[in-house]
């Protein structure tokens, strides 16, 4: 039976004198040049592994951008045991780090596209570079992330005698909230808004605490506020679109369809990943989001011209 090895990585990119550059790494053990990447740790998600491995291999802290094509190829060890390696990639912008290298990597170099294409050791690594260049040509490489979060699992209504807005997370919900911390961190989310209901605020609070960020509570994102004035929820979403800062919005099952529909209307039909984004958002509108689930929309521009160019869906049970 062929085993599957799960891994994740990034294409760190930047501009120098208006020219697009990408970072490639050299592994002395294999004497090859490739993208920073590595295997998922047990219980880890692909985006978290991508950000972690990039930091470990390059010494650079990155913020994940739009997803890039997955590489799937066969491996064979010295004993002839075969495996399939599945590597998922993201475009990534450097936001920090000291550039200190670990022993597995002895060199990180920034190259323009043509030099990177020549330097890469494996043909399957060119697919991600081509997608990056295509997105850049479409004006859809410089993006900012907007996350919609459905609150984590709470105590059932039938088991709670107090005010519904005060209904807390249960044990599983608290675990889900803690597990959101590294996922949201991989996208560098800064502005945090939430329904003031305990189960929603406590879903995003661990991330706010870990980053020192301010959690802004908006009554219009609660079930009660939405019932009183449905337009308030989309108002808060559009305010985030106007700001254009990496953001997370946490709300409830009955509120989220209006927000998803708004984002669905912002998908550019000509985007390279537009059809996939439209399909994914349509499936969310049809089936809803699971408790603790996160929808990451990669947005270009702000305000009225803002458009969604790519969408990711992260279910709380999607872990290695």
UniProtKB/TrEMBL annotation:
Domain of life: Bacteria
Gene Ontology terms, MF aspect: bis(5'-nucleosyl)-tetraphosphatase (asymmetrical) activity
Signal sequence, renumbered to the chain: none
CDD domains: HP_PGM_like, NUDIX_Ap6A_hydrolase
Residue span(s) of domain Nudix hydrolase: 3-133
InterPro entries for this protein: His_Pase_superF_clade-1, His_PPase_superfam, Nudix_hydrolase, NUDIX_hydrolase-like_dom_sf, NUDIX_hydrolase_CS, NUDIX_hydrolase_dom, Nudix_hydrolase_domain
Keyword Hydrolase (UniProt): yes
Biological process (GO), any one: AMP biosynthetic process
Alphabetized UniProt keyword annotations: Hydrolase
PROSITE patterns membership: NUDIX (PS51462), NUDIX_BOX (PS00893)
Statement: the UniProt record of this protein carries the keyword Repressor: no
Entries under Pfam families matching the protein: His_Phos_1 (PF00300), NUDIX (PF00293)
Protein family (similarity comment): Belongs to the Nudix hydrolase family.
The protein's name: 8-oxo-dGTP diphosphatase
């Amino acid at each position: 039976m062929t085993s599957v090895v799960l891994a994740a990585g990034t294409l760190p990119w930047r501009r120098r004198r208006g020219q697009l550059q990408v970072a490639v790494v050299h592994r002395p053990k294999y004497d090859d040049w490739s993208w920073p990447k590595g295997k998922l740790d047990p219980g880890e998600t692909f985006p978290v592994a991508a950000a972690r491995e990039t930091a470990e291999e390059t010494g650079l802290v990155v913020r994940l951008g739009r997803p890039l094509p997955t590489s799937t190829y066969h491996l064979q060890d010295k004993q002839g045991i075969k495996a399939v390696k599945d590597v998922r990639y993201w475009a990534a912008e450097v936001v920090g780090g000291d550039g200190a290298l670990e022993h597995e990597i002895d060199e990180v170099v920034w190259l323009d596209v043509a030099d990177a294409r020549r330097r890469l050791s494996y043909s399957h690594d060119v697919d991600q570079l081509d997608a990056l260049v295509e997105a850049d040509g479409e004006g859809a490489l410089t993006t900012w992330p907007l996350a919609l979060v459905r609150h984590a699992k709470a105590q059932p209504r039938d088991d709670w005698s107090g005010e519904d807005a005060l209904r807390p997370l249960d044990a599983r919900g608290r675990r889900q909230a803690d597990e959101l911390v590294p996922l949201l961190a991989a996208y560098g989310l800064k502005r945090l808004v939430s329904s003031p209901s305990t189960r929603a605020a406590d879903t995003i609070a661990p991330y706010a605490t870990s980053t020192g960020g301010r959690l802004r509570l908006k009554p219009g994102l609660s079930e009660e506020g939405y019932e009183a004035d449905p337009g308030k929820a989309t108002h808060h979403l559009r305010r985030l679109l106007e700001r254009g800062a990496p953001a997370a919005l946490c709300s409830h099952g009955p509120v989220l369809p209006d927000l998803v529909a708004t984002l669905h209307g912002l998908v550019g039909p000509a985007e390279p990943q537009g059809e996939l984004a439209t399909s994914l958002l349509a499936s969310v509108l049809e089936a809803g989001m699971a408790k603790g689930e996160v929808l990451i929309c990669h947005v270009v521009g702000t305000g009225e011209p803002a458009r969604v160019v790519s969408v990711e869906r992260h279910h709380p049970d999607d872990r290695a």
